[in-house]
Amino acid sequence: MLNLQQVFVPVQICQRSLSRTSPNLLRRLEEREEPFRSKDIGDFLSLMGCDPDFRRLAILGAPGSGKTTMMRYLTLMYAARTPRKLHPKAPQFIPVLLYLRDVYPTILQTPDLPLADLVTTWAQKLQTTDPLKPPTGWFAKKLSQNRCLIMLDGLDEVPDERDRQRISQWVDRQMYEYPDTPFILTSRPLGYEKAQLQEDVMVLEVEPMTDEQIQSFVRNWYLATEVKSQGGEVDLGIREEAAQQASRLIAEIERQPALAEMASNPLLLTMIATVHRRRNGLPLRVDNRLELYREICQVLLERREMAKQSSNVLSREVQPVDDRLSADQKQSVLQPLALDLTQRKTLRFTLAEVRPLLQAKLATLPGLDWTPEQFLKQLREVDALIAKEEEDVFEFAHRSFQEYLTATEIKETHQEALLIAALQDPESLKWWADTIRLYAAQTDTSNLIDAALNLETPTLDTWLLAIDCWQTGRTVQPASKQALLTKITEPLMVLEEPTLTWAKQVQPRYFKLAYLLQQGAWREADRETYYVLRDVGDRDHKGYLDISDIQQFPCQDLKIIDQLWVKYSQGTFGFSVQKEVYVETGNPLDGEYHEDTWIKFADRVGWRKDGSYLNYSDLKANPSFSPTGEFPTIRFGLRLLPTPSARKTGCFEDRLPGTGRHVVSASNRALTTSGFKQFANTNFLATFCTASIGACHSSHRLCWPGVFFLAFIFCRIAARVLLPQVLRRSGLGFGL
User: Is-contact 658 255, C-beta < 8 A?
Assistant: First the structure.
């Protein structure tokens, strides 16, 4: 188990549903001058000491959103007598954390049980060796003095709805008995819905983790994990390894929207990090995602509930969870459900729509008399793999789970023909694409590849999917592989030798770029050029290129990119074309930045007009009308890095990969895809993380650095600092 203090990242909680808040409290909140805003738990603790409206909180959150972890962290901070870490104004309390799943049988047996007696019994059972023996009446005294913080975790984990209501009523009585004692109750929204507290309670909801919180958690988690794996030792090497692994995972999350959506849930983020580390930090490609989804399903369907039961001091008092259905049995029912939804191209379903399917599947399971209603209730309230969106409308907690279960069902029931049919329909393919990828990672993909090759008018999406099937398929027949390679090499045949030979060897690296250029999709090719440069140069999977990567970028790859742009634009676009313009406009290759000649270059290639840089959308992007050298621009990869002086003044950058947007807090200036902005804040060193140049030959002949200034056009200081470095580290020549 990792050290909670090292890993914990406070999530935000806010008021969402006013219908769950008592009318009296609502009236008082409306009278406040300041509007209610999202806060973390430390902010609410600081208010508990001075504002009675904040002394009773009901915190609701989705499964895995971090409710229990938050309560454990509060308990730890107060037990260590460090509440100021939560908030400078956090009051001093004695923490009492009760897991309702542990204590509810006792409460139901003795409905009039005083809180003080329950807490005393709880304290005596905290540890079996050398058990605590609080003096008689000690907790009753502390409660009457309002010294305790009562945390009641997991109302939703009381399984029976009527029992849950009785527990809620008991909590109401304790709040009435101790009106000035702070209480925090946690629950899933569905569990609280029909067992709401009646006292004046502020109802809050846990918000999804922000990008910043995700990044902080990943860094904390990797450091704690590396330290634990090294027996608790911490040195610079361990910190550096943890930082590199964390950066790789953060980059993976940023570049995969489905992964990013899941990562906003702390439980799923932890599982993503676990699988990522198990794979030695390799990119989470389709086969890795298959493992990830399989692991998540297992945890949600079985292991998480088992872990909850085994981790708490009073678990022996809990009535056993109905375990007549194993995780595999539950999944065997969910798989045909997922396939049915996918065939109907929908994510949502009603009980009436799926009742026959569920009844038929449940009937095949031995010794089980569950109804579809009971099954969905278990999946929703306990396992959390099914979500209830509105009355009688359900869906899988995440679309990726539906796709994974569909792919697994197709494999196990040998229905590959469904996927082949989807390949033949571009509209259906949009819906089935990820399911096909997850299926491919489990079996031989030769039939799928052959089906793509036999299409009369395959689209780019079809070819890319066929490539994924080749690269991630468990097996592929040699004939299918060779036929696909031959087909996707056709757009590369404009290359000259020996560049063509190298391009063939690294296929399918350049297929998409060549295809887009062949089709005249110049802006899309501009974006793809950035991705190719990043993927080739980013040797340690950081998600971007640093100066070292720029200096060591492979020359043969740079030549391929340049030749593709030059050939398909008939000499209008390309790195080497831009270099000629750069030299013709008087820019000397002397390692220095010259603003006057730089501006002349930007004017010539059409990035500036009438003294201002143009919006990206205003570029002509057409070899018949564009100025020579207008493309590629690769504006997607700019990365601003603070210099030592910037760190001292607190300047930093917020990078949004793939969007081109960067907000620099120190200057309050934005660099966006809608405008090429000059950026002259001298506190920053700017480095573009897209194109690069390598010292390919010891002769140090100057070469065109891949549009070394791809991002320099946006940032004057970048051009002044890095452009000379890139030119100095050149070696290709292109005739110079």
Answer: yes
Percent with pLDDT over 90 in the chain:
42
H-helix segments, 424-459:
426-440, 446-453
C-alpha 678/C-alpha 458 separation (Å) is: 42
Rounded mean pLDDT, 333-343: 96
Q: Where are the domains of the chain?
A: 4-206, 414-492, 523-728
The confidence band for 635, taking pLDDT boundaries of 50, 70 and 90, is low
Those residues whose C-beta lies under 8 Å from the C-beta of residue 319, and which sit 6 or more positions away, are 105, 159
Question: Which CATH number among 2.60.40, 1.20.1630, 3.40.50, 3.30.70 corresponds to the domain 4-206?
Answer: 3.40.50
Residue with tokens 């904390």: 220
Report the C-alpha gap between 370 and 363 in whole angstroms.
9
Q: Band of the pLDDT at 590, cuts 50, 70, 90?
A: low
Lowest mean pLDDT: which of 344-353, 365-374, 717-726? 717-726
Residue 381 DSSP class = I
Q: Is residue 715 within 8 Å of residue 593, measured between CB atoms?
A: no
Main-chain dihedrals φ then ψ at residue 518, nearest 5 degrees: -60, -35
Is the Cβ–Cβ distance between 589 and 727 less than 8 Å? Answer: yes
| Residues 6+ positions from 633 with CB-CB distance below 8 Å | 526, 607, 616, 619, 707, 710, 713
Q: Which of 649, 621, 541 is nearest to 283 (CA)?
A: 541
Is the bond preceding residue 498 a cis peptide, omega within 30 degrees? yes
User: How distant is the alpha carbon of residue 227 from its chain centre?
Assistant: 24
Among 141, 189, 149, 150, CA closest to 170: 150
Q: Which fold has domain 523-728?
A: Arc Repressor Mutant, subunit A (1.10.10)
3-state secondary structure 286-354: HHHHHHHHHHHHHHHHHHHHHHHHHCCCCHHHCCCCCCCCCHHHHHHHHHHHHHHHHHCCCCEECHHHH
Peptide bond between residue 508 and the one before it cis (omega within 30 degrees of 0): yes
Could you read off the pLDDT of 651-676 as tens digits, one per residue? 323 332 333 333 322 222 222 222 22
Q: What angle do CA 429, 431, 432 make, to 5 degrees?
A: 65
Digit-coded pLDDT (tens) for 238-286: 888 899 889 889 988 887 877 888 889 898 898 888 888 877 765 566 6
Buried b (16+ CB within 10 A) or exposed e, 632-666: bbbbbbbbbbbbeebeeeebbbebebeebebbbee
The pLDDT score that the predictor gives to residue 477 is: 96
Locus of tokens 């994974």: 404
Report, as an integer, the average pLDDT of 108-117. 94
DSSP for 240-258, written as a single string: HHHHHHHHHHHHHHHH-HH
Q: Which of 130-134, 484-488, 646-650, 661-665 has the highest mean pLDDT?
A: 484-488
